[in-house]
Amino acid sequence: DYIRRIIGLLWCLAGELSIALCYNIPMHYYDLKQDLALVDKKDNIVGRIDKWEAHKKGLLHRAFTIALIYKDQIVLQHRRHPVFDGYYDLTCSSHPVYIGDILQTFEQGFYTTLKREWNLDEGNIQKMEDKGSVYYQAKDPNSIYGEHEICHLLVGEISLFPSPNYEFAYGFSLVSKKSLLDKKNPLRGSFAPWVPLLLDLL
Questions:
Q1: In tens digits, what is the pLDDT along the chain, a chain of 202 residues?
Q2: CA 151, CA 155: separation in Å to the nearest integer?
Q3: 3-state class of 76 per DSSP?
Q4: Does residue 143 sit in helix, strand or coil?
Q5: CA 93, 98, 103, 105 torsion: positive or negative?
């Protein structure tokens, strides 16, 4: 984690805008009881499961990652999370969760997550587009958890300068799409494992 933060700082000095502040705010959201959708590899729902049980057992579930575009730059999140903590994500990642017996739509999850993690309301986002999904599985080397997901990429545009909720982020960066796709970009070694797969959908 220390090395990843140093890489982010050096990258900032190289000319990209990077803000990396750390606040010690309790992450109460992660203590909530939430159920996710268990799915097959075609993203058909086959059941429901507690969020942390799914991540401990590596069971395939539905997820999404959001990529926000601000003035032709992609907003990256320096992830503060029990799973893959300290890695760089796209703008944020989460899951549709069950509200009672009804699973959130991607649109509902999109706006709920951006409100929670980026203080953005629906009116701040110009449009949302589902760019497709990827399948992947990855074990977090620094925790008891792992990811096993059908992960959808949801893309939106904003005109308001992003301001993260530091309960969920150590900082953020604004990166051009060209720089993000550059395999020599030093941040690529700090990407969460789903990010390189999703870049093909951007």
A1: 545 545 554 544 343 343 333 334 345 777 778 999 999 999 999 999 999 999 999 999 999 999 999 999 999 999 999 999 999 999 999 999 999 999 999 999 999 999 999 999 999 998 889 999 999 999 999 999 999 999 999 999 999 999 999 999 999 999 999 999 898 888 888 999 999 999 999 8
A2: 13
A3: strand
A4: coil
A5: negative
pTM listed for this prediction: 0.85
Q: How many whole angstroms separate alpha carbon 38 and alpha carbon 47? A: 5
Closest CA to 73 of 175, 156, 195, 200: 175
User: What's the alpha-carbon Rg for the chain, to the nearest Å?
Assistant: 16
3-state secondary structure of 193: coil
What does the alpha-carbon distance between residue 49 and residue 2 come to, in Å, rounded to a whole number? Answer: 34
Residue 197 burial (10 A CB sphere; 0-12, 13-18, 19+): middle
How many residues make up the chain in this entry?
A: 202
Q: Is the dihedral of CA 64, 101, 117, 82 positive or negative?
A: negative
